[in-house]
Design a protein that fits this description.
Rossmann fold, alpha/beta, 40% helix, five-stranded mixed β-sheet, 26 strands, GMP Synthetase, Chain A, domain 3, 635 residues, 22 helices
């Protein structure tokens, strides 16, 4: 690959995705563009092979009647076929509508109808079933199945369903010439994608993304991690490709950086895939890091006494070194030498068990991360950093850039004059830059509320520290106003609760109430392991909610959090969720963001039991008895 010419997001105002694909094919035709795990082996595809597949599908889209600007839905598991369908759609001048592979029939129907998609790709037989059931208006000209092992069932004869192999035959022409022809028809400001937001409050909104949005947004990554422009990087792709972060990792970042995506085999053990690839760069929500940390801790706890003793000694040295690095910016040379030995002989073998022994550039975003998780990985020698972004800005505008950064903040604004970040008097952060979306599809009012004078109003309340770091405090519209008139951030309280290793998620309640309460999701693995030695009656996750020893354990964790909170923010009562929170039961998005309204509705009967409404009920009874407030006064 030729030396990267990129220095600022502003440079992408004059280019397009097909144009950059041409450059990669011309300069790196025989280099590996990506790997796909199939039947236990990692199978590479070169840039020339990638381009050929893209041209094949793009030409087939044109032959099927797809015109520039048409919307094409892609619903599928993580795979190279998803990537090829996406890139082919973009090169054809059409618009990708990413659909989460776990979406229900109702959700898919909404995406199809809202976007007006005319053709769809379905990843598997199950996703084909969902897609067909969702297409009640019969708008789809054709549904193409991406799974190379898919076989047509007898009842699909004569229908508009075809395999990818049937749809797109091998491309025999000149890939560069074909892509150049398509590139000449494209403009940087053309729409290439509808990135649907997670819909935590109301129906999902389709963020309209252009070539500039996708490329300038992707370039925010090397802006806070310049090494990926010059050093080859192994990057595991396992998040849904309809998610903006995964989409950047797979589709646009490899066009401008030296990242090589590795697509996991959904039928294989995810942890095994990570171990095999040993990623050098990795981005994932906090929950994944928490699970990886738990795996290591469980292994240490099950090791020999000598191994546990060595681990404890190494951890003590690591604590001193990390404290020196964070306080003074550098460690004591002698301690650093001791730590290097600990890192090589104690921590590195443990990290190898989860495939993190060569991980150089780890990041986490999309949700608050418990500080203990970050600190633990730092002690093990993994330089985990936090950052912040939204679908509406494609990439991110905040990132921790200092090595061994203290946890608890999202970093500082990007060092790129193309991007600006400001904080309004009410604490809301607003952002301006070339990677922003251009509005919400078919939603003019929501667009006007989010985009004003070129600024994206993020809806996130932030606090800027003395060192210039930004800490997310809350969503602007998610403040709780208690009956006592206190305005409280539920997210801040939930973050304190989630510092416990036993608590993976929490829902704080208190709007119009006298005090705060919480519903708590416990870590299934840790809680079940703990319960095995403390409550033999616990045999499944559902038993945890009624186990008195488990309740007592979580009460202690809640009390620890309360000790760090102001009096009005403290949790007075709690219950444990009787089930794990998942997108399938409608209370979480595909990226594990809470749907507060759905949670409140689904567990209303549990929430009701958290409050003593005797006073309120007494007043109601008085009013019902005589029909007027005056009669209450006479009593």
């Amino acid at each position: 690959m030729s030396a990267a010419p990129w220095t600022s997001g502003n440079q992408f105002a004059t280019t397009t995705i097909p144009a950059l694909l041409i450059e990669r094919v011309k300069n790196d035709a025989d280099a590996n563009a990506f790997f796909q795990r199939r039947a236990g082996a990692w199978v590479p595809t070169t840039w020339k092979g990638y381009a050929n597949a893209v041209c094949s599908v793009s030409a087939a889209l044109g032959a099927a009647g797809v015109a520039r600007g048409d919307r094409i839905a892609i619903m599928g598991d993580v795979s190279q076929e998803w990537l090829i369908a996406d890139m082919a759609t973009i090169c054809s001048g059409a618009v990708t509508v990413g659909v989460y592979f776990t979406a229900s029939v109702e959700e898919v129907r909404y995406y199809l109808e809202d976007s007006g998609a005319t053709l769809a790709f379905a990843g598997s037989a199950e996703q084909l079933r969902v897609m067909k059931a969702a297409d009640t208006s019969s708008r789809l000209l054709k549904i193409v199945v991406l799974d190379p092992d898919w076989k047509r069932s007898p009842d699909e004869t004569g229908m508009n369903v075809v395999s990818l192999a049937e749809f797109a035959s091998h491309f025999d022409g000149d890939e560069v010439a074909y892509l150049r022809e398509q590139s000449e028809l494209a403009r940087p400001t053309d729409l290439v994608s509808l990135g649907y937001t997670s819909g935590t409050t109301g129906a999902p909104k389709g963020a309209m993304l252009t070539h500039v949005s996708m490329l300038a947004g992707a370039f925010t990554w090397p802006t806070f991690c310049p090494a990926i422009l010059s050093e080859p990087q192994r990057m595991v792709i396992h998040l849904p490709l309809s998610h903006t972060v995964a989409r950047i990792q797979a589709t646009t970042l490899p066009l401008i950086a030296k990242t090589v995506p590795y697509f996991v085999d959904v039928s294989a053990d995810f942890a095994k895939c990570i171990q095999e690839v040993r990623p050098t760069s990795y981005m994932a929500p906090p929950r994944f890091y928490q699970k990886f940390a738990t795996q290591i801790i469980n292994h240490v706890n099950g090791s020999s006494e000598a191994e546990r003793r060595n681990y404890t000694l190494a951890l003590g040295i690591a604590r001193e070194v990390l404290a020196d690095r964070q306080d003074a910016g550098t460690g004591d040379p002698f301690k650093e030498q001791l730590y290097a030995i600990c890192r090589e002989h104690v921590f590195k073998p443990l990290l190898a068990r989860i495939g993190f022994d060569d991980l150089r550039y780890p990041y986490t975003a999309s949700a608050p991360v418990p500080p203990e998780v970050v600190t633990l990985f730092q002690l093990w020698g993994v330089n985990l950093k936090e950052n912040y972004g939204q679908t509406e800005m494609v990439g991110g505008n905040l990132a921790q850039v200092t090595d061994w950064s203290r946890p608890g903040n999202s970093g500082v604004p990007l060092d790129d004059p193309a991007w600006e970040t400001r904080v309004l008097p009410d604490g809301e952060m607003i952002v301006r830059g070339p990677g922003l979306f251009i509005g919400y599809w078919n939603k003019e009012a929501e667009t006007k509320a989010a985009l004003r004078d070129g600024w994206l109003y993020t809806g996130d309340i932030v606090d800027v520290g003395a060192d210039g770091s930004y800490k997310l405090i809350d969503r602007k519209k998610e403040l709780i106003n208690t009956a006592a008139g206190k305005s409280i951030s539920p997210v801040q309280v939930e973050n304190e609760l989630r510092q416990s290793p036993y608590i993976t998620e929490a829902l704080v309640i208190g709007e119009g109430r006298k005090y705060l309460t919480a519903l708590i999701e416990v870590d299934g693995t840790l809680a079940m392991d703990w319960a095995r030695t403390h409550d033999p009656s616990v045999t499944q996750y559902a038993d945890l909610a009624s186990s008195q020893p488990v309740i007592d354990l979580i009460r202690e964790e809640v009390e620890k959090a309360n000790a760090r909170l102001a009096r009005a923010e403290q949790i007075k009562a709690f219950r444990i969720f009787p089930e794990e929170l998942t997108p399938e039961n409608g209370v979480m998005t595909a990226t594990r963001k809470k749907r507060r309204k759905a949670l409140m509705a689904r567990y209303a009967h549990i929430i009701a039991g958290l409050y003593d409404d005797a006073e309120e009920q007494l007043i109601k009874e008085q009013l019902v008895g005589s029909g007027t407030a005056a009669s209450v006064h006479r009593q």
